[in-house]
Amino acid sequence: MNHKGILVVVSGFSGSGKGTLMNRLMEKYDNYALSVSATTRSPRAGECDGREYFFKTQEEFKEMIQEDAFIEYARYVDNYYGTPKKYVQEQLDSGRDVILEIEMQGALKVKEKMPETLLIFVTPPSVQELKRRLQGRGTESGEIIDARMAQAKEEVKFMEFYDHVLVNETNQEESCVDEMHQVIQCAHTKTSQNREFIEHIREQLKEV
Question: Is 13 annotated in some ligand binding site?
């Protein structure tokens, strides 16, 4: 059977808990790798090149764009951020499932370039719960919370393009982590992920 890894893109509303879920997934199961993005911003205290980010100069990043070295990239304020194709492919070839957390438009760009990508959307069980979680952080002003809720109105338009929607129920984080793991592992049995194996069986049957 095919032992190549699967690229998984996880998106969701701000406050859905997707970051916490992915961190727990990495702790609980050992076959996952988080995709490391490249960026032109300066390293912050404690950050290490190749761990948090691949730190690049503006010139280096633009060269990578010209070389089609990114699965997707975007510019925020004065800095570029992108997903290096080479790093992801190396992890997939080694058999690891690569988790990439990006916003919806970026996720669709990845799916366009790599059609076998698995798209997972994480959401709380209700809009009321989403707002409660944002307020519960205690770190954001009312204006920022309103802006995040307005952003969610735009983001919901992309949900139907995802392969799976995971509802992160309140106080059920562990169950959601296990469900995410099961969804990813089930994707390994798709026929599109096992074309080489199918061809191998086909060739063997010709010899019978």
Answer: yes
